[in-house]
Amino acid sequence: MMRKWVAAIALVGLMSVTAAAQxxxxxxxxxxxxxxxxxxxxxxxxxxxxxxxxxxxxNANGQWPRNNVSDYVRxxxxxxxxxxxxxxxxxxxxTGGPAVQGQFQQNIGTANTAWAQQLEIWxxxxxxxxxAAANNATVKPQxxxxxxxxxxxxxxxxxxxxxVSYKVVGYINPQNMVERVETWLENPIxxxxxxxxxxxxxxxxxxxxxxxxxxxxRGGNSTFEAQILGANANPANxxxxxxxxxxxxxxxxxxxxxxxxPAAQGPASEKLAEGVFRINGAYNALAVGFADHxxxxxxxxxxxxxxxxxxxxxxxxxxxxxxxYGVISHHHFDHTSGLPAVVxxxxxxxxxxxxxxxxxRALGAPRTLAxxxxxxxxxxxxxxxxxxxxRVFQDATRTVEVHLIKxxxxxxxxxxxxxxxxxxxxxxxxxxxxxxxxxxxxxxxxGTGVFADNLERLKLDVERIIPVHYPADxxxxxxxxxxxxxxxxxx
Length: 491
Hints:
The chain is α+β, with helices and mostly antiparallel strands and 491 residues long. The protein has two domains: 16-235, outer membrane lipoprotein receptor (LolB), chain A, CATH 2.50.20; 269-485, Ribonuclease Z/Hydroxyacylglutathione hydrolase-like (Metallo-beta-lactamase, Chain A). Helix content is 23%, strand content 36%. The chain has helices at 2-35, 115-122, 125-134, 238-242, 304-317, 339-344, 353-363, 373-377, 446-458, 479-485; strands at 42-52, 66-77, 82-91, 100-108, 138-144, 147-159, 165-172, 178-187, 191-205, 208-218, 221-233, 269-273, 276-279, 285-289, 294-297, 323-327, 348-352, 383-386, 390-394, 399-404, 415-419, 424-427, 464-467, 477-478. Strand 5 and strand 6 (147-159) form a beta hairpin. It is elongated, with a radius of gyration of 27 Å. It starts with a helix and ends in a 6-residue tail after the last helix.
């Protein structure tokens, strides 16, 4: 009798699995028919919208900065798979002046197999259904906001650095339209970063259903928005549409991947004063030795590798002392993407109070897709916020003042480090000094004037200025040169 019961239970379980699989196939099939996906091999759609700069918000708790896109056209060949998107951008620089025209381009082909690129194909409503049909999807009903959805989940063929497959989740409404698609992507600040694509206001183009509104969010804020005016199914010239033109003669490729350019070649560090070193690279840091510890300004730029190099060189030039404090200039991701290495080292991150909650929340997120040095160490981020305009780090041997810069459009809560005895000041991103052989902009950019005004406001007796982004000729920068730039000094 017991064997019969076991066999019956196993049969019921098998029937349940089979029914669930059939249910998923039925849900996907119904949605594919309703949206015109069954006969869809490729698509082109067009309109206007906006691109947003992930990690470059003016305020850490605000929206990513918007860059309008006109003449937006997106083409996808699901068979290759390949995609190309183009548009014309207009953006006003934070340093002031008129909007500058640029190009929006996104080219995804068989050479771009990473999920970071391919997801742009498979999180579209049509790509999601095709991926679900091909990848053993599952389904479960879920009520959200009083509405019933069929939630379909499948795993992409691409795998994350940890070895797990990327998951894709789509929400299909009672009208069999795909309203939302979610996936996750590794990010040095957000960890397992949620990528949400939201589709609404569906329209019909000869049986093809397309959303008139598209919103993609990363890190909780919009990174792309589009108002779609029309769509064409299976365009005859799809190969031409998804193939980018060859680069212009004499021009190389685009910039490098996330985290900025590689560190500049040259000496790894430079002694500025006794116990004070500039740690050289594309993003510089300032290391200051106290009696029993080290203070580091800008410890986590670019990526983990750059941050680890800064930490290693700091320990080499100031040996036998722990790095206790790492002060970040501001929250932008090109200046903070190495912070997991800072946490792994046990360094306390110091920022303005404006950024504290954001960094604690982001750095505290799970990191299962790409375990980094922080998650491997088991250490939790320790973030201290400067309340007010100033914090002084001091012992019997050294004083470092950290000041808040006011009035800068680039970023709220931006900090500078000032050594009163050595008359050295380190800063980031207010302005970039040109080569000595180049003329100074006239009038100077907004950030230059803001910097000079803050030096006057704070009454700082500065002789040497240490930019995080050093001039390409590597020259020492003086306050006198800065004053000449803003017309407050003599030639």
